[in-house]
Write a structure and sequence with these properties.
Elements lengths: L10 H8 L6 H4 L13 E5 L4 H5 L8 H9 L3 E5 L10 H13 L3 E6 L11 H10 L1 H10 L3 E4 L9 H20 L4 E5 L8 H11 L4 E4 L6 E3 L2 E2 L2 H8 L6 E5 L13 H10 L5 E6 L6 H21 L4
Parallel strand pairs: 1-2, 1-10, 2-3, 3-4, 4-5, 5-6, 9-10
Antiparallel strand pairs: 7-8
Helix pairs in contact: 6-8, 8-9, 9-10, 11-12
């Protein structure tokens, strides 16, 4: 057993051990879990949270796992293909990234895919090309040990509500069928337009009807166009039955450290009530504070909400 005064112990562990039998160390670990139980959710870091530094070349994609662990104390990442867009088939590059992530004990959960075509394109040939352009990312995701690729259900905005559902479902079904052989999920984020209409996207999922096709609800992306915003709480609730990942979008904070656009307590209750117990990704996108501070504020808020919610769970 470690010495009580081992400097590697956290202050919380020290106080728990010093309680001398009143509380056990396991009993004190309530940050998201009860003794012997899994936490309500774990926290990951979406690479987009550092997009300004990455685009400015102040941070290299290969160093993302190191920064995630050393600067933020987070042990899981969600990658964005924009920061290594020409490397999907570069096994040496992917091996280097994976080795670095493994070295820092960082899990690679998924890759967010942009710019590879519209999976719900009105032209069948274009739709097929878009499906095929995602194939290398499925293979890269498998190699890196991911569980999913995140894609966009883009339709180009042409056709009726139902027609666009059918086209998106067609492209997603074909991509998910391919991905199933690699044990990779294909998950869709609410990312503008009809994809941010919770009922529309839930309908697409039901039409696809494959276990490895699901959603990635984002707390903040609910612009459905023409100046209209879909209700974010309703939208997340509609997507959660299909969720395989969750994105905790943040932009601005008040003096108490609460996100001013999203009630995280209300939102996380929706997530947990749906039975979700996976990773929740920090995705800071604001500009009033720098990226490092925004990431820390979001992480702290998720930790605080987790601690509050665990005390409300039945014993």
């Amino acid at each position: 057993m470690k010495d009580l005064f081992d400097p590697k112990r956290s202050r919380r562990e020290f106080l728990c051990l010093a309680a001398g039998g009143v509380l056990t160390l396991a009993g004190c670990r309530t940050a998201g879990s009860r003794a012997g139980a899994q936490p309500l959710y774990d926290i990951s870091l979406a690479e987009w949270s550092l997009h300004r530094q990455l685009f400015a070349k102040e941070l290299d994609h290969l160093d993302f796992p190191k920064v995630t662990r050393e600067d933020y104390g987070i042990g899981a990442v969600e990658l964005v293909n924009q920061f290594f867009k020409d490397k999907a088939r570069d096994r040496q590059y992917l091996a280097d990234f994976k080795q670095r992530a493994d070295g820092f004990g960082v899990k690679i959960l998924l890759i967010m895919i942009d710019g590879e075509g519209s999976l719900g394109h009105a032209d069948a040939a274009e739709r097929s090309r878009a499906v095929e352009r995602h194939y290398p990312w499925v293979e890269a995701a498998q190699y890196l040990g991911c569980h999913s690729i995140r894609v966009n259900a883009e339709t180009g905005g042409t056709g009726t509500f139902e027609e666009q559902q059918e086209r998106a479902a067609d492209g997603l079904r074909r991509l998910a069928t391919f991905a199933a052989d690699f044990k990779i999920n294909v998950i869709v984020e609410n990312h503008g337009g009809l994809s941010s209409h919770g009922a529309w996207l839930a309908g697409v999922m039901r039409q696809v009807g494959l276990k490895n096709c699901g959603t990635l609800p984002d707390f903040g992306n609910f612009n459905i166009g023409a100046g209209q915003q879909y209700d974010r709480y309703l939208g997340v609730a509609e997507m959660m039955p299909f969720a395989k990942a969750v994105s905790a979008k943040s932009n601005d904070f008040d003096e108490a450290g609460n996100e001013i656009h999203t009630d995280y307590r209300r939102m996380m209750k929706i997530v947990l009530d749906a039975g979700y117990r996976g990773f929740v990704g920090v995705e800071y996108e604001g500009g009033k504070v720098g990226e490092p501070e925004g990431i820390r504020l979001t992480k702290q808020l998720l930790e605080r909400v987790r601690a509050e919610l665990v005390t409300s769970q039945p014993a």
